[in-house]
Every structure is written in C-alpha cells, then in structure tokens.
Specification:
With 427 residues, this protein is mainly alpha-helical. 92% of the residues lie in helices and 0% in strands. It has 8 helices and no strands.
Length: 427
C-alpha cells in the first residue's frame, strides 16, 4: 500500500544509517591511528630517556647498550606493526561487513520494490479483468436495448409480411389475373426489402455501440495505466507493454465475441432471406402459372363467345334478308289489294297475301330453329373449355391422375347425353 516515494524514503533512511556507520568506522580508524601515533611518540621518548640514562650509567659499554636498545626498539616496532595490522584487519572486516550489509539492503530493497510493482501490476490487471466481467460490459444495456428494439420491429415487419402472404388465398377467379399476382408479389418484395434495410440499420447500430464500448474500455485501461505511472510502478514503455500483453487481449476478446455475434446475426438473416426469396419466387411462379391458365381459359371462352355472336349475327342477317324479301312481297300484295275494284281480284291478292304471311311465319320458325341449333353448341363449347381448364389446373396442382381423367371423360359423355336429350325435348 506504500507509494514508491515512501519506499524510496525508507531506502534512503537505511542507506543513511549505513553511511553513518561507515563514517563512524572511518572515525574509529583515525582514532586508532592517532592513538598508535601517540603511543609511538611516547615509546620513542621513553627509549630516548632510557638510552641517555643507560649511556650515563654504562658509558664504558656503549656498544652493548646500543645493541640492547636496538633490540628493544625492534621489538617495539614489531609490536606497533602488529597493532597496525590488527587494527587494519578489524577496520577492513567492519567495513566489509558494512559494505555487505549495504549491498544486502540494496538487493532486498530492489526485490521488495519489484514485488511491490508486481503486486500493483497484478492488482491493476485483476481490477481491469473484473471491470471487463461486469454486467455493464458483458451484458451491455445499450446493446441489449438495441437488440430488443430490433427484435420488436423485425417481428412486426415479419407479421405484416406473413399477413400479406396469407392474402394469396384470396387470389381466386374471376379476379385472379397475372397483374394481381404481380402486384401481390411486388408488395411482398417491398416488405422484404424494408425488413432487410431495418435489419441492416440495427446491425450498424450494434456495431457502432460495440465500437463505443471498446473505446470506453481502452480509455479505462489508459486511466489505470496512468495511475500506475503516477505511483511510480512503471514507466511509459512498461505501461504500453502491460497494456499490449495483459489489457488489450481482454478488450480484443470482447470485441471478437461481439463481432462474431453480429456476423452470426447477419449470416442467419441472410440465409433466411435467401430461403424466403427462393420460396417466394416459387410461389409467385406457381400462382402466375395458375393465373395464366385462368387467363387462357377466359380468353378462349371470350373467343367462343365472339364466335357464337358472329354465328348469331350471321343467322339473323340471313333471316333479315329473307324476311325483307317476304315482307316486300306482302307489301306489294297489300298495295294491290287496296287497288282492287272487284271481289275476284281481291280474293286472288288476298290468297297471295295469306301465302306471304305463311311464308313469313315459316321463315321465323326456321330462324328460331337455326338460332336454337347455334345456341345449343354453346354449352358443349363451354363444357369442353371447362374440362380443359380443369385438366390443366389439376396438372398444375399435381393432382392429375388417370382415374381423374377417366372420371372427367365419363362426366363429359354424360353431359353430352343430357344436352342431346334436351335438344330432342326442345324439338
């Protein structure tokens, strides 16, 4: 929990203590040197005093005295040198222990500093890992809200498209034409396009929110690294290395998972859209073919009606021409009757007028018979077209079999028999 400055102060305090110890060792060495110097001077004065005293007592044996004094001086010098050696050994031993202690303290401080840095680094990494595992990141409210909105709106469009698909049941004759099928197909395609555009818009929103979350996570990571730098845990290069090795993989992992979800949504929607488009095209082809069959039936029936109308007009025109001639003859006879002056001529022209009226009545009877013969062909024509339409639509629906064909032939023969009986009754 200590900041690096306080740790540096503790290290400086330890170094100060060791430096003070080193200074005291130096002072001790100087004191020992000074003590030995004083002892040396005292011994020198002592030897000078006793040398003079011995020379006064035994002046006749000066050489022996000088030899004795030299031996004593040599012994004293050896003792002094031995003391210097011991002092030097003690001082060097103490200094060595002090240097070793200083080195151990420095190494221990560096180890503790490295441990402290590792601890703070791990705490920062654990803190960022916990941040990445919070519901605000793993289950982002913005992404969840957009997903719910997308689901709601897409479901609404799917329901509208489904309802529009159901209207294909209402496409029945006689309003069942290729134009109505094409209009229905275009409306369904328009709804599908709206559905695709809506899905694409929400996918773009999800991607934008994902980028924003990644940017926020990177900002949090930079803020944590700045805190480490301010506390002296690491420098800029170490912070960037920590970010690239420990923090960015967590962010990239979340981004890859979010991108994978978006790609899975796009693939699922694309597959469903392709399948729906293919099935819709098949349904359109099926309905359009059925509409073409009905249109063909209507055109053939219309052609038959036109043909029947032409026959009726031809029959009426022929009757009008004959009737016009007969009426002209009748008018001529009537004019002659008005001009007759005796009964004989009047009876004569009256008989001719009566014959003309009978011929006119016979012409109308023939016209009626001819018209009946023409009209009696119409049910056969309509029945034939209906049977043809029934065969084609059954084949189109895939329910046409040989048994159905035999039953239809029997029904056709039965219908022709009924028409023949009706014709005999009418005659």
């Amino acid at each position: 929990t200590f900041p690096v400055k306080k740790l540096q102060v503790l290290c400086d305090d330890v170094l100060t203590l060791l430096l003070n110890r080193s200074n005291k060792i130096s002072d001790l060495r100087e004191q020992l040197n000074e003590t030995e110097k004083q002892r040396k001077e005292q011994i020198s004065e002592l030897f000078k005093h006793y040398s003079a005293l011995f020379h006064e007592i035994a002046y006749l044996n000066a050489d022996a005295i000088n030899l004795l004094m030299d031996l004593e001086v040599h012994t004293s010098n050896q003792l002094l040198l031995t003391n210097y050696k011991h002092y030097a050994n003690i001082i060097s031993q103490i200094q060595l222990e002090n240097v070793v202690r200083l080195r151990q303290s420095r190494v221990r401080w560096e180890e503790r500093l490295a441990t402290w840095r590792d601890l703070h680094t791990r705490q920062t990494t654990d803190k960022f890992t916990a941040f990445m595992n919070t519901p605000a990141i793993t289950d982002c409210p913005d992404i969840k809200a957009i997903s719910e909105q997308m689901k709601c709106e897409l479901n609404g469009l799917v329901d509208r498209r489904f309802n529009k698909l159901q209207t294909v049941r209402e496409l029945k004759p006689p309003s069942f034409t290729c134009k109505t099928v094409l209009r229905w197909y275009e409306e369904v395609c328009e709804l599908s396009l709206t559905l695709e555009n809506t899905h694409r818009r929400y996918i773009a929103k999800l991607a934008a929110v994902g980028d924003k979350v990644l940017l926020d996570c990177e900002t949090v990571a930079d803020r944590m690294l700045e805190t480490l730098q301010e506390e002296g845990v690491c420098d800029d290069s170490e912070a960037q290395e920590l970010k690239s090795s420990d923090l960015m993989p967590l962010i990239e992992k979340w981004g890859a998972r979010h991108k994978e979800k978006i790609l899975r949504l796009e693939e699922e929607f694309s597959d469903e859209a392709a399948l729906f488009k293919a099935n819709l095209h098949l349904l359109y082809d099926f309905q359009n073919s059925a509409a073409n069959i009905w249109t063909e039936y209507c055109s053939r029936v219309t052609s038959k009606n036109i043909e029947l109308s032409a026959l009726i007009k031809k029959c009426r025109r022929k009757h009008d021409e004959i009737n016009q001639q007969l009426e002209s003859s009748l008018d001529m006879e009537m004019d002659k009757m008005r001009q007759d002056t005796n009964d004989i001529e009047l009876k004569k022209h009256l008989g001719k007028a009566t014959e003309a009226l009978e011929e006119i009545a016979a012409a109308y009877t023939n016209f009626k018979k001819d018209m009946a013969d023409v009209i009696k062909t119409y049910p056969d024509m309509i029945t034939s077209e209906l049977l043809n339409y029934s065969v084609k639509i059954r084949k189109h629906l895939g329910c046409y079999t040989e048994e159905v064909e035999e039953n239809m032939e029997d029904e056709e023969e039965g219908g022709e028999g009924e028409v023949a009986e009706g014709s005999d009754g009418a005659s």
